[in-house]
Amino acid sequence: MASSDQIRLLLVEDVPQVAQYIRSLLNSQAHIKLLDVLNDGSKAAAAAQQLRPDVMLVDALLQGRIKGPALVEQLQRERVGVPVIMLTVPQNPVQADPERGIEAVLSMPFSGYDLMNKVTAVHQAYKAAGGVGGSRVVSVFAPKGGVGKTTIAFNLAVAMGQQGHRTVLIDASLQFGDMRSLLKVPVDAPSILDLPTDRIQESDLQDVLWRDPSGIDILLAPPRVEMAEMVTVRDVDKVLSLLRRVYEVIVLDLPAPLSDINLAFLDASDTILEIVTYDSTTIHNTIAVADAFRSIGYPAAKVRYLVNRADSAGGISPDDLARALGRVPEHSVMSDGMLVVQSNNEGLPFVLANPQAGVSQDVMRMASELMNVGLVPAGARR
Ligand SMILES: Nc1ncnc2c1ncn2[C@@H]1O[C@H](COP(=O)(O)OP(=O)(O)OP(=O)(O)O)[C@@H](O)[C@H]1O
Ligand SMILES: [Mg+2]
């Protein structure tokens, strides 16, 4: 079975016999993959952030520092965004209560059939209800400058926000962060360097993020070029896992070089939205990057190509482009010099300035298509 069809399960269980029983039930099938068994509830939220399971199975009678019900509360408070099935015994009845984060209850004794059915049903219901089984990171990237990365990242993030997803945009062009000038933010506006490095509350984020009138939050790049190097590869993982707790979507505006920092952002991304244009050097670089991504081990489905200014072909045909890329690009956005340049100059997203325009419709369609793409399991991202 393709790994993307597998349901990834995280079990929080401190009774070894029960853990062993569940393991043995799952051993003989490929539909559900048991990612890990945790016997300590206090580690479960962090593990869920890291492993991004589709479903968690939590023993209601968990002992230790964090009991079962407290763990469910914590998962909900930290917006981990993973549906939970509570495991219990008839003497300790638990009610399913999706409002409080308990999607379903599984009472012992149960068969392999009961377990499989429950996990599958919860996963499907959660997906159908719009839960994505975790937040997603979308990097807007191109191995070439000036192809529209910043413009697309900003408008895509706003479109996703408009479609009801809690969205943050990170200006990951750390040296020459374009969002500062695009949005005309004051020089002393805080940046990625001002994020606390350990535990973070939503209230801490309030002070660091730029709350744009367009409805999205933006984590700005440092205000000065030389400050970019203060952001390390370790910070990248930290920042993303902190933001994943609060936001459903994280959109990154990345610069062109395949630097260590950029690769860290790309590694951590669920989807790389790679911009190509009808321009021979851009296409050449795109093919070179596809090779590099293949040798790093990124699955092909991690990259989605976006043809920007798709109606300005300049002598190269769509067939030539598809042949060069090895596939038909998944998305395209038309050219609209008047609207795009004017909106950028005013620091406004064109998707709000003129939602009816073709270019806005293209970006909005892409936003909903990207939200409907299944998440690549963390282990398969590279
Ligand atoms: N679909 C479009 N139609 C018309 N103009 C566009 C379109 N997309 C981008 N542009 C214009 O192209 C120029 C470059 O865009 P942008 O700054 O977003 O590119 P970038 O890839 O972020 O550049 P850099 O590599 O410098 O960060 C801008 O003037 C922008 O207005
Ligand atoms: Mg840019």
Task: Give a verbal description of the structure.
The chain has two domains: 126 residues, Rossmann fold (3-Layer(aba) Sandwich), CATH 3.40.50; 245 residues, Rossmann fold, CATH 3.40.50. It has 14 helices and 13 strands. Strands 8-9-7-10-6-11-12-13 form an eight-stranded mixed sheet, with helices on both faces. Strands 2-1-3-4-5 form a five-stranded parallel sheet, sandwiched between helices. Strand 12, helix 11 and strand 13 form a beta-alpha-beta unit. The C terminus is likely disordered. The site of magnesium ion has 4 residues, from helix 5.
Please state the structural category.
alpha/beta
CATH class annotation of the largest domain: Alpha Beta
Strand elements, count = 13
Between the first and last Cα atoms, what is the distance in angstroms? Answer: 19 Å
Question: What would CATH call the architecture of the largest domain?
Answer: 3-Layer(aba) Sandwich
Largest sheet: 8 strands, mixed
Assembly state: single chain
Q: How many individual domains?
A: 2
Keywords:
alpha/beta; 14 helices; 2 domains; disordered C terminus; eight-stranded mixed sheet
Task: Give the helix/strand layout.
Blueprint: E1 7-12, H1 16-27, E2 32-38, H2 44-51, E3 55-59, H3 68-77, E4 84-88, E5 102-107, H4 112-128, E6 136-141, H5 149-162, E7 167-171, H6 178-182, H7 202-208, E8 210-211, E9 217-219, H8 233-246, E10 249-253, H9 260-267, E11 271-276, H10 280-296, E12 303-308, H11 318-325, E13 331-333, H12 337-346, H13 350-353, H14 358-372
Parallel strand pairs: 1-2, 1-3, 3-4, 4-5, 6-10, 6-11, 7-9, 7-10, 11-12, 12-13
Antiparallel strand pairs: 8-9
Helix pairs in contact: 5-14
Bound molecules: adenosine-5'-triphosphate and magnesium ion (MG).
